[in-house]
């Protein structure tokens, strides 16, 4: 029973039928979902979704796109993690592809999120796009200040960057992109990620995997990504599910299966 380690249940496309989306995920065998926030105004929404459930969790963070609009402080992030359903910090990171926020502001916000992760012991959920060098530099430098855990979500970076993240002890999460015809290099790298460092996600409502490509993505579709990865890695679907679910709870230690 796979875990969708990254979805946006409060986003347009899902929020209009949120109860149905969650029900369909459970019917598909998805055992848990992590509802991700991208700005502080969403924190209450994702926490509300998670409250009263045993299989939905929440994160608190500010996406790099929002770095110009939100000068988020570490203390505010730490305070927000005290809610029992909050198990991760992010998503945060660097996005030099869209460059929607000043790059130095992105870097400073990223560092604050990592500092909050270090203080709380919760993992940081990292978005990186066209920013491998700076992402690596910051994550390495921050490790020098003290240990913290992290996952590179919706991995699309180079294999060299991925291997470096693995060398640093971090996790990698694979989305439905891996099933696309133009993602052969990603699929090849995904097949070599160590079994104990691999997660799966949808990033719903975006990036629906084949055979659902073109539709609004839902957490239920994580089963297609998991099936593709199992075939690519030459293992049983059940073994892939077991491994990625175990990894989710090993990384997000505050969550309970």
Question: Which helices and strands occur, and which strands form pairs?
Answer:
Layout: E1 3-7, H1 18-27, E2 32-35, H2 43-50, E3 56-60, H3 74-80, E4 86-95, H4 103-120, E5 124-129, H5 132-143, E6 150-152, H6 159-167, E7 171-174, H7 184-190, E8 198-200, H8 222-233, H9 237-251
Parallel strand pairs: 1-2, 2-3, 3-4, 4-5, 5-6, 6-7, 7-8
Helix pairs in contact: 3-4, 4-5, 8-9
Short summary:
GO terms for molecular function: hydrolase activity. By secondary structure, this protein is an alpha/beta fold.
Any overview of this molecule?
- There is one protein chain.
- The protein has 257 residues and is an alpha/beta fold.
- Helix content is 38%, strand content 16%.
- The chain contains 9 helices and 8 strands.
- An 8-stranded parallel sheet has the order 1-2-3-4-5-6-7-8.
- α3 links the parallel β3 and β4.
- α3 crosses α4 and α8 crosses α9.
- The mean pLDDT is 98.
Computed Rg: 17 Å
| Helix/strand/pairing category | alpha/beta
Low-confidence stretches: none
The helix tally amounts to 9
Distance between the termini: 11 Å
**What spatial order of strands do you see in the largest sheet?**
1-2-3-4-5-6-7-8
Task: Please state the overall shape, judged from the principal axes of the Cα atoms.
Answer: globular
Strand content: 15-25%
Oligomeric state of this protein? single chain
Task: Please give the number of β-strands.
Answer: 8
User: What do the pLDDT scores average to?
Assistant: 98
- Helix proportion: 25-40%
Largest sheet: 8 strands, parallel
Taken in chain order, the helices and strands follow as EHEHEHEHEHEHEHEHH
